[in-house]
Amino acid sequence: MYTPQQIREEIRSGNWTAPTSGACGDYLQANLVVMPEQYAVDFERYAELNPKPCPVLEKLPAGSWRPKLAPEADIRTDLPGYRVYRDGRLTDQRESIEDLWEEDFVSFLIGCSFTFEDALKADGIPLRHVEQKKNVAMYKTNIDTVPAGPFGGKMVVSMRPVHKDKVRQAEEVTSRYPKVHGGPVHAGDPSQIGITDLSNPDYGEAVTIGEDEVPVFWACGVTPQEAILQAKLPLVITHEPGHMFITDRKYEEL
């Protein structure tokens, strides 16, 4: 059983490049957004206006890469995957951002639904993507977010199949954790939120959905990446979807 520090060491050394779902199940995991300080006020406002997909766990001061949620960690190296966006385009995917770091970079750690997966499992709700050793399926929707400055666009959701008799139970369990997206935004017919093909996710990997199961959708921390594409900032860095920062804090503390 890995500790968060051990997993971060494995990531830093290049031995762990896989998604982090199921890793250190009782610890908080976080999405990452890094941008020049001049845009951070607008992004923080965007997150405040959209707490479901963008619940900020921590904002790091300009130039800092040591989060309070894991004081010995380095957010420049301790995620298994990063994305680099320039002028609204994805230009690079990498395992470290040390050489890109600037003293005016402000970083945001945003709650991740991987955090409440351990609570779902403990309540007898299995996770198909973990069983199939896949990254969770994520989809763009037709749900508008509230804009702020240059940031706006549609919400992204993650999907987990849930037995039809346990959907209410899944809603109740996840609603206890609003700082990691809370309860689902939709359950059932995906076309009602603009998703036309569950077998073709925009991020992550498709999973099997049984005849007695319902697709349940939670707001996703990949939503800021869609907002970043719309904003077309000169440079923004995020996590690779599904490849999160594992903190030293247990989700029970929420």
TrEMBL record:
<dbReference type="InterPro" id="IPR009906">
    <property type="entry name" value="D-Glu_cyclase"/>
</dbReference>
<dbReference type="GO" id="GO:0006536">
    <property type="term" value="P:glutamate metabolic process"/>
</dbReference>
<dbReference type="GO" id="GO:0047820">
    <property type="term" value="F:D-glutamate cyclase activity"/>
</dbReference>
<comment type="similarity">
    <text>Belongs to the D-glutamate cyclase family.</text>
</comment>
<dbReference type="InterPro" id="IPR016938">
    <property type="entry name" value="UPF0317"/>
</dbReference>
<keyword id="KW-0456">Lyase</keyword>
<dbReference type="Pfam" id="PF07286">
    <property type="entry name" value="D-Glu_cyclase"/>
</dbReference>
<dbReference type="InterPro" id="IPR038021">
    <property type="entry name" value="Putative_hydro-lyase"/>
</dbReference>
<protein>
    <recommendedName>
        <fullName>Putative hydro-lyase CR205_12145</fullName>
        <ecNumber>4.2.1.-</ecNumber>
    </recommendedName>
</protein>
